[in-house]
Fold this sequence. Notes:
- 45% of the residues lie in helices and 14% in strands.
- The chain is of the alpha/beta class.
- It has a 6-stranded parallel β-sheet, with helices on both faces.
- The longest helix has 34 residues, at 427-460.
- The relative contact order is 0.11.
Amino acid sequence: ILALAPRRRLNEGARRRELLPSALKNAGGVSKRYLTLCRALIEGLGWQVTLMTPVNVRCSNEDDVLRWLKEGKLVHLPARGVRIESAADGVAVFLDLFSAVNAGLLLNELFLKRDYDCIFTDDLAWRIEFLLLTRATGLPTVTTTHTDITHMPSCKGCVKLAWNLHILSAHLASVHATVSQVFGSQMSKKYNIPVGAVWPPILWSQEFKSEPATWAQRAAAQRATWLERLKAQGCTPKAIMVSAGRWSGEKRIHLLFDAVPKDCALVICGDGTSEYATTVEHAGPPAGRPNVLPIRKMLNAVELRVAYAASDLFLSASNFETLGNTVIEAFCSGTPVAVQPAQGHLEFVKDQKNSWFVDYNDQDEARATLSRIVASGLDADSLNRALPDFAPLGQKFRAANFAKDFDEAVLQPALAVGRQQRLGGGCNAMVELAKRICCFVTCFFLWFLLRFATRVVFVTSRDPKFAILGKLGAALDDGRGETIVTLPCLRWLVGSKWLGSTSVADTGSPRAVDDYEGHYRKRYRTAMKKWFQTWHEVILMLIAIVCVLRGSVPMLRRSGP
């Protein structure tokens, strides 16, 4: 995910910026974070934003995005993307920095137009290449690390190598930011990288800024609907607990299934693209749990706010969160939380002061703790007595000005570094020029090296699988969409008698012919059906004869006169 911000013109009253968010399910809170940043830059600070992304932002179901595009406050630069599919982590799409199309776009924007004040990028794959390029321009760059992927099953081999370079690249940014003090401290100690700023808490929709009382009627209607469905499943709960967000393994939603007391209900809202999401979907009555109600749907802002308000307690067993946007949303909705005491949950949650910590690793203890919480009362008066800091913290989040806080905490430090990097006069200008030249030369040669390496990985990797998307800026999270051949030198052969067809009928979905599924597996099966079945015995016999003759010649020579 990349973010670029255009430079202020002297004859313009508004400043301009550019950034790249994602709109896919697997982006999780990151997509909401960059939607919030767009809103802060455009409406809060008066900047003009350009997004360079492979994601189809027009399908984000956000009215503000469509309005900004129509008014020209937001410009979308469609880019080439790479789709990565993993059985464990689902489907994701990332910007392909080593695409010739994207390289041309970046060179045009950064070196020819140069109409930018600041550049934003976050967990973009191989971002070291991009940060070398932006450092060569002298433009200030804010890069944000949102997660530590070493906890994910797909972090192995080439992905782990990319992650190590990814972390190393933080030294090149004007400001390396993260999303919480807790996570920033952990990253700094673990990887010895600078953390120069922390994002303020985000509320990605204005719906979360209104008072909880205004949602009481809709919450009651939603709660009645849930109770009716639970009753049909054979459950009449004392309390309703809710879990909302992306359904993926690192969220550890499965630990909630049996941690919820039998006389309480668990409503699970969300969706995902991995096999884990199917497990969550069938965690209710099909698995013998009448008190679990999975609702497979990514909720919009209104639906999510209603869901929080309709529940008595929000649960999260994740030990992976860098902050936990859902925790902040629950606080704003007037719903306390019971979360795993790990990672970003430690940022704002204080046990028995504004909410509760529950160790979901111990299912029996977690169930007992949740039973005690329910028994203590979850009505407004009981919460005020048990959690004196809960209501004030929710009010603080609702009243926060994200645009102002972000400008002070992240933006202004980056712009200050940008002013220091300008080419003025004297020895400092010569040193700065030398740094820029070194960065550009390194970027130039590294681009060709990594382009070759990534293409080899895309072609040969079995899990995860990679595919280069054909249409620019049109990626969705359904795992489909037209793809193109990874190796440019082979693209003219597609559809020929040598490489065959890549139609939906042949492959199940539009797919390139030179990824693992489209090339190795398909060609292997073809070979097994044709020449190999007929000739493999002859080939093996010839190989055996050659080996025997090769070994017998030295023996004959030694036995001679």
